[in-house]
């Protein structure tokens, strides 16, 4: 498939305002904003032609602070590397220096986008395998939203399993809509060859509000419930690769679990069988 064929059609495309002349350093124009809950939203911005990244990486973005200096934070890029625009999925932290303001952006506004994406949740940091597990909590799903829409993911692995654990049902909406788009949008159908249902397993769970599957993914893995529910064999270092992105306690617990199953942590310079990144700093 040609990358140029992978262009999603959105309702808002026609309403997208023409980019304004940059007034900030590294300025990009907001093209779309969607709010999910009082704590979560996603937005898209223009992409500089020179901006290159690998799916799974993060970049520094922000707004100009009241002191006249850029107020920047790390954000995973949620869109795939072939799209014309960049998408981000964001928390709204009450009184958070950046997100208390960022949550009010509208199409036509400008944000700062620094030019150097980095990160460990990249294909280059993993050895070849058969199955790829994406383990996320909260906004930690963002890098996987990029990787799931990347042809390389489907060329390298037979099966991908996305688990997403949030406190409440409403916090799963971004992930649900992403999976539904992958399932139904004809742009992606070529990626799935043998069939969507066989190649992608989606396993959302909640911990504080009733849903069809409750519990922390760590507990569900330990008890074997995940494998039973999905009809999959347990994780082994021979066939499985994993990427982890969530809060610190979750990352540490899942790392320990994967290491019990003899997976080893990799890095860009030393590819192994799993990689991990914090979804935010505590
Ligand atoms: C590698 C990396 C990638 C990141 N990617 C994203 C991303 O894609 N989307 C995103 O929303 N944030 C992401 N973050 C967090 C982001 O950098 C900011 O912390 C966040 O935007 C809040 O900024 P703030 O200035 O409002 O508050 P901050 O002062 O930065 O944070 C205040 C407190 O809010 C909590 N918090 C911050 N971010 C989150 C979060 N995402 N989920 C739950 N609690 C949080 C923490 O307890 C933190 O101490 C990432 C962080 C890192 C290190
Ligand atoms: N989500 C909300 O409705 C809400 C509302 C107001 C304020 N906040 C605040 O916002 C901050 C971030 O909240 P968040 O919900 O986005 O993120 P979070 O606290 O990182 O929780 C996200 C998910 O990860 C699970 N989790 C936490 N530790 C884990 C571990 N060791 N192993 C496996 N799973 C684990 C949580 O389960 P558990 O529920 O079992 O911990 C929850 O389902 C917190 O400081 C919180 O107090 C959140």
UniProtKB/TrEMBL annotation:
Cofactors that this protein relies on: FAD
Catalytic activity reported: 2 reduced [2Fe-2S]-[ferredoxin] + NADP(+) + H(+) = 2 oxidized [2Fe-2S]-[ferredoxin] + NADPH
FAD-binding FR-type domain: residues covered: 23-124
Annotated region (Disordered), positions in chain: 1-27
Enzyme class: oxidoreductase
BP-aspect Gene Ontology terms: cellular response to oxidative stress; heme catabolic process
Annotated family: Belongs to the ferredoxin--NADP reductase type 1 family.
EC number(s) given by UniProt: 1.18.1.2
CDD domains: FNR1
Entry keyword set: FAD, Flavoprotein, NADP, Nucleotide-binding, Oxidoreductase
The protein's name: ferredoxin--NADP(+) reductase
Organism of derivation: Meinhardsimonia xiamenensis
């Amino acid at each position: 498939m040609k990358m140029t064929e992978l262009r999603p059609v959105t309702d808002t495309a026609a309403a997208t305002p023409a980019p304004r002349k940059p007034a900030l350093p590294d300025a990009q124009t907001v093209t779309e904003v969607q709010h999910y809950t009082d704590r979560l939203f996603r937005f898209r911005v223009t992409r500089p032609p020179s901006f290159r990244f690998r799916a799974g990486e993060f970049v520094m973005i922000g707004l100009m602070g009241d002191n006249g200096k850029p107020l920047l934070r790390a954000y995973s890029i949620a869109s795939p590397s072939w799209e014309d625009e960049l998408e981000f999925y964001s928390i709204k932290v009450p009184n958070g220096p950046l997100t208390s303001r960022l949550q009010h952006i509208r199409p036509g506004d400008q944000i700062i986008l620094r030019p150097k994406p980095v990160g460990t949740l990249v294909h280059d940091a993993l050895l070849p395998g058969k199955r790829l597990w994406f383990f996320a909590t909260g906004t930690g799903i963002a890098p996987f939203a990029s990787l799931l829409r990347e042809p390389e993911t489907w060329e390298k692995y037979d099966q991908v399993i996305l688990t997403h654990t949030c406190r409440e049902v409403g916090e799963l909406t971004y992930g649900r809509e992403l999976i539904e788009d992958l399932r139904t949008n004809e742009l992606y159908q070529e990626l799935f060859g043998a069939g969507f249902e066989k190649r992608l397993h989606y396993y959302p769970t909640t911990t504080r509000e009733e849903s069809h599957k409750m519990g922390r993914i760590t507990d569900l893995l330990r008890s074997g419930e995940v494998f039973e529910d999905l009809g999959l064999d347990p994780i082994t270092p021979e066939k499985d690769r994993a990427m982890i992105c969530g809060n610190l306690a979750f990352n540490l617990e899942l790392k320990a679990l994967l290491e019990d199953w003899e997976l080893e942590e990799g890095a860009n310079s030393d590819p192994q069988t799993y990689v991990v990144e914090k979804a935010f700093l505590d």
